[in-house]
Amino acid sequence: MRPVGLKQIYFSLLVAFMLYLLPWAGFGLLVRPDFVLLVLLFWMLRAPHLCNVGTAWTMGLLADLASGSLFGQYALTYAITAFVALSYQRRLVLFNDWQQAGYVFVLLVLTQITLLILKLFGGSGLPGWSYFLPSITGVLLWQVVVYSRVRVTGQKDH
Amino acid sequence: MASLQNQQPPAFFVRGPSPFARLSFFAAISLALMAVDARLHYLTEVRQGFTALLHPLEILAHGPSAAYDATRDFITRQSLLIEENNALHEKSLKQSADLQRFNAMQAENEHLRNLLKASKETPQPGKLAEIIHTSRDPFTRKVIVNIGTQQGITAGQAAIDEYGVIGQVTQVYPFSSEVTLITDKDLAIPIQIERNGLRAIAFGYGRDNTIDLPYLPMNVDIREGDKLVTSGIDGIYPSGLAVAKVTRIERNADSPFAHIVCTPTAGINNHRQILLLTMANVAPAPSESSKPAQPRNRHAPRRP
Which domain holds residue A48? Predict the structure, then answer.
């Protein structure tokens, strides 16, 4: 496995954030995967010594700023997801691709549920079931990345 | 392997604080931030500053779509333009007739107001704004427009389009501002039924692009097709702007209130340009104490 540099991580996070900032609307907004979280998860599972809860929290704070929501909502959500992702990170090398995808899907749904709870405390109404669509598109995007031979854990690198 | 000594120890053994310790630390900070932001509103300036820092990134991100729009505008078919031009001509002809009547009525109104010795109704200047994008938050109905505090926009201004009220400016940033649409769950707007002058407050429903008229009794005099206009009581929206049209009324025996569903008149999701009205120019109602003999106008806005 090639060593991962901090520059690489920050650059990919910046690209993900720019994707998030694109003017999404209508159907695109409905199915837009959480790019920032996916990139965060990728690096957390691959290089946990460089990308940790703090990185996730900072990116969450940026997402808060850009979305204009209550300060700290995304930050807390991303931090919690990062914690869960990191606590099972060691076991991930035993998983095959599909199990990894399942794991990522669980993490994405967990993020959305945490965010939903925080928003409900903040006084928002219940969104429809389509609220969970980004988790599905997110895991599809994850599989695309995995199939393009970018190994997450680096154990099975050819 | 000999060079391993002067290398860093493998990442496997570098742990730092445990993930749980980090989580507790950051969770505490974010909870504090949320509490301060939601309850104390200390962070508005901080937020404005950081949003201004993010502004260049946003411009960069909007580059591709802006280029696409520009290209599409450039290669619009001529027939399409002619068609649109004809339609606009026709519309302006229709409106010019109304406008002539409007001038006469305005003069008459001024005359009547002079008779009543009321202060003159000043026209409300507005600023044209362009919608940059819709809110990134799926829970809310908001749009972000391209002018902000630098152009003199303040929070609370009303936003309208050619057909009616769109919403209200709820947050301002240096170069952009956030307009909450009238279909958002948190936005209430004081309205009046055009037909009979009945006052009520309309709330956004949050879904399906509809507006709710809650807390009205079962026997309220509202029919399907009634037009709702702003009452002007709040001092934010000038009176008489179209807001919505009643589309459905449900009267259930098990509820003391009628369930009234309205659709907004303005093209809430269609337009790119909207007008932000300047506040604090609403003419006060004729003072009641100075003229006790005057019969009170039923439609005149009353101060709360």
Answer: 6-147
pLDDT in tens, B155-190: 888 888 888 888 999 888 888 888 998 888 888 899
Q: Is A67 part of any domain?
A: yes
How far apart are alpha carbons B303 and A44 in whole angstroms?
59
- Rounded to whole angstroms, the Cα distance separating B255 from B258 reads 7
CATH architecture of structural domain B122-282: Beta Barrel (2.40)
- A47 chain-B contacts, CB cut-off 8 A: 11
Q: Do B54 and A22 touch (CB under 8 A)?
A: no
- Give domain limits for chain B: 19-75, 77-120, 122-282
Q: How far apart are CA B283 and CA B234, in angstroms?
A: 12
Which of A1, A6, A19, A76 to probe the B interface (max B CBs under 10 A)? A76
CATH number of A143's domain: 1.10.1760
Query: Cα dihedral angle (B232, B233, B236, B239), rounded to 10 degrees?
Result: 0
SS3 of B139-198: CCCEEEECCCHHHCCCCCCEEECCCCEEEEEEEECCCCEEEEECCCCCCEEEEEECCCCC
